[in-house]
Amino acid sequence: xxxxxxxxxxxxxxxxxxxxxxxxxxxxxxxxxxxxxxxxxxxxxxxxxxxxxxxxxxxxxxxxxxxxxxxxxxxxxxxxxxxxxxxxxxxxxxxxxxxxxxxxxxxxxxxxxxxxxxxxxxxxxxxxxxxxxxxxxxxxxxxxxxxxxxxxxxxxxxxxxxxxxxxxxxxxxxxxxxxxxxxxxxxxxxxxxxxxxxxxxxxxxxxxxxxxxxxxxxxxxxxxxxxxxxxxxxxxxxxxxxxxxxxxxxxxxxxxxxxxxxxxx
Length: 265
Known about the structure:
Distance between the termini: 15 Å
Number of strands: 0
Number of domains: 1
Strand content: under 5%
Radius of gyration: 16 Å
CATH architecture: Orthogonal Bundle
Order of helices and strands: HHHHHHHHHHHHHHH
Low-confidence stretches: none
């Protein structure tokens, strides 16, 4: 979903900056760029639009990843990306959750959202924690798309995943540090989206934790998009910065889901 790409784009300049405030300016820095989060979100969108599974999704990831070789790949994924294998490597990193939002947008039920999340995680992130992270993120987006209130989303995602979502952003921020596991990024990103007052506030919450900012914002962004929508000017600004292949993947995703593309509203 576009909210993931916007979160990634805004968060990209803060990834290793340990930003510990919501009052950073400008919101969209001139040096902002798309990273691996956006590339794989688009790959997931195309894979699901083509009803791909297992090795076909792995091939899709490799095709997109090799097209963008310098966009911040994690060490293990980069090794897998340039290898000859299509087998998963047991990851529980947050990559499974950062890319999962298209599954929630296309799903017609809670069960389908969880199943599609599993399907998109397993080609690389087949560790139980990698799958749990993807499913929790997808469930939060799905419930928000159904119009559920923040408290209801929190209760249902917490009951499904076992994640503790009770803390506030202000309570998380002081001791939070950079972490790339699902266990230490997905719950925090969900909190950032559920405690937000609007889309921008969710992104600022995610960046302000001072961690893996682009991925935290890429996970929070689609939840916030489903809750609040995306401000039209911000959507168009980031849309205009997207490469043609990313725009094409997003446009076809929203068309298939029967939902208006925020950048064109």
